[in-house]
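Worked example 3 (structure in, sequence out).
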């Protein structure tokens, strides 16, 4: 075979080698592509958890905002019916299902029902002033304060007839004196000789706090120190 013939064969083989190289490269590229898809799937799988957490935080924030708005509305609407300081002790105010009525509650003061109704104010005033089971603590015509009893339950009541507003709280007469409770809440002005009752101390029923434990340890240390003889006293005896 001449040199020219070999050269022609080599030239003819070059396109075939190039095509083979391209084919192998393409196959290698196809095999490597699924990896990014796996990462995308992993990212997609974690999305629902993040979405759930975000939704829960958003829902809690919305609920808190609604409670703050309801409390602010109740404070403004029933201002003067009860001391403003009482609203500071409420944790929340929510509509209770009755028209023009709202329920406010706090951990220290309990639950109160507020009503904005002239007919409710008129009928409640009649109950307070005419029934033998009721007692009036304060009667200024437009404003009446007292309580009614039903069994061992007292219904503490304040009525503002001028504005048609009523607030009530239920309490057990086995645990509190209704008249004392009214004065404690500031719903009526107490007489000069009135003395606030002493409520039983329930601190003995709870577990001691870290502060309590620290105070006890300090007291024990002080007691031990006072029992040890001082250096000067030891020297004198020697």
């Amino acid at each position: 075979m001449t040199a020219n013939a070999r050269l022609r064969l080599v030239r003819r083989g070059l396109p075939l080698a190039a095509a083979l190289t391209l084919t192998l490269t393409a196959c290698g590229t196809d095999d490597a592509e699924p990896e990014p898809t796996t990462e995308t799937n992993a990212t997609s799988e974690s999305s629902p958890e993040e979405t759930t957490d975000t939704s829960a935080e958003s829902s809690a924030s919305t609920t808190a905002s609604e409670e703050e708005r309801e409390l602010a509305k109740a404070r403004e609407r029933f201002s003067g019916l009860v001391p403003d300081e009482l609203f500071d002790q409420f944790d929340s105010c929510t509509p209770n299902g009755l028209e023009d009525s709202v329920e406010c509650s706090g951990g220290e003061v309990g639950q109160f029902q507020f009503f904005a109704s002239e007919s409710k104010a008129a009928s409640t005033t009649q109950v307070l002033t005419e029934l033998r089971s009721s007692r009036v603590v304060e009667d200024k015509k437009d404003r009446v304060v007292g309580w009614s009893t039903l069994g061992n339950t007292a219904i503490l009541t304040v009525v503002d007839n001028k504005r048609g507003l009523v607030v009530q709280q239920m309490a057990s007469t086995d645990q509190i004196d209704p008249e004392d409770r009214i004065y404690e809440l500031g719903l009526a002005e107490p007489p000069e000789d009135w003395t606030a009752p002493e409520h039983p101390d329930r601190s003995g029923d709870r577990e001691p706090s870290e502060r309590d434990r620290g105070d006890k340890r300090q007291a024990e240390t002080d007691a031990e120190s006072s029992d040890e003889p001082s250096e000067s006293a030891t020297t004198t005896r020697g």
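Notes: Residues 209 and 215 are 10 Å apart (CA to CA). The helical segments are 3-32, 34-77, 84-88, 118-130, 178-184, 210-227, 231-237.
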